[in-house]
Design a protein that fits this description.
Elements (H helix, E strand, L loop, with lengths): L2 H16 L3 H13 L1 H32 L1 H23 L16 H7 L4 H14 L5 H28 L7 H17 L2 H6 L1
Helix pairs in contact: 1-7, 2-3, 2-7, 2-8, 3-4, 3-5, 3-6, 3-7, 4-8
């Protein structure tokens, strides 16, 4: 891969992981509700999960989806249902003061597994393989996964940090409820491109 193409790949990886989507909206909500430190496993899970998804997509899943298009549609429907459930969880998150509440940030494994039902993760992973690793060689697919690993953590950190910035403002119960409902609505809004493609 040429230096200019590699630079473009890293730019693509940063922009696509930094723009609003299910991961970043959930990180914003997690940072606001639980703080930056407690959101770190969530962020790390996103980074690792996205890298693994990209590697496996490049090493065979793309070919499987091309051979059996119904599998991709089934995955999309499952993703949509799961994101609606997550939106409900965000909208009904417990107040900050309730330490004994069932609300907690996503764990590393939950966040890594979430990438498999995140339509944006699939879209950017498959797009990156198509554009930057069309030969699907070991080296090119690995470079794409590395680019996402390097770019995703600072992008994710930015969203979780923004959540902590508004944490004090959200100490008011009414504002917190409005914030969580707004985040849930935006999370559902990220499904619009997927719903249009069905």
């Amino acid at each position: 891969m040429s230096p200019s193409l590699l630079t473009a790949l890293f730019g693509f990886a940063f922009v696509t992981t930094a723009t609003p989507g299910p991961n970043n909206l959930m990180l914003l909500a997690s940072g606001a509700n639980f703080g930056f430190r407690r959101t770190l496993p969530h962020m790390t899970g996103i980074v690792v999960g996205l890298a693994v998804l990209t590697l496996l997509a490049g090493f065979g899943l793309m070919a499987l989806f091309e051979a059996v298009p119904a599998l991709r549609t089934t995955l999309q429907v499952f993703c949509i249902g799961y994101l609606f459930w997550l939106a409900w969880k965000v909208a009904t998150a417990a107040p900050l003061k309730e330490a004994s509440s069932p609300g907690r940030p996503m764990t590393f494994l939950q966040a890594a597994a979430f990438q498999w039902v995140n339509p944006k993760a699939w879209a950017i992973g498959l797009s990156a393989i198509t554009v930057y690793a069309p030969d699907r060689s070991l080296l090119s697919v690995t470079l794409v996964a590395v680019a996402f690993t390097v770019a995703c953590f600072p992008a994710s950190s930015m969203w979780a940090w923004m959540g902590t910035v508004i944490r004090q403002w959200l100490s008011n119960e009414r504002r917190r409820q409005i914030f969580n409902i707004t985040m849930a609505a935006l999370l559902i809004g990220t499904l619009y491109p997927v719903l249009r493609s069905l």
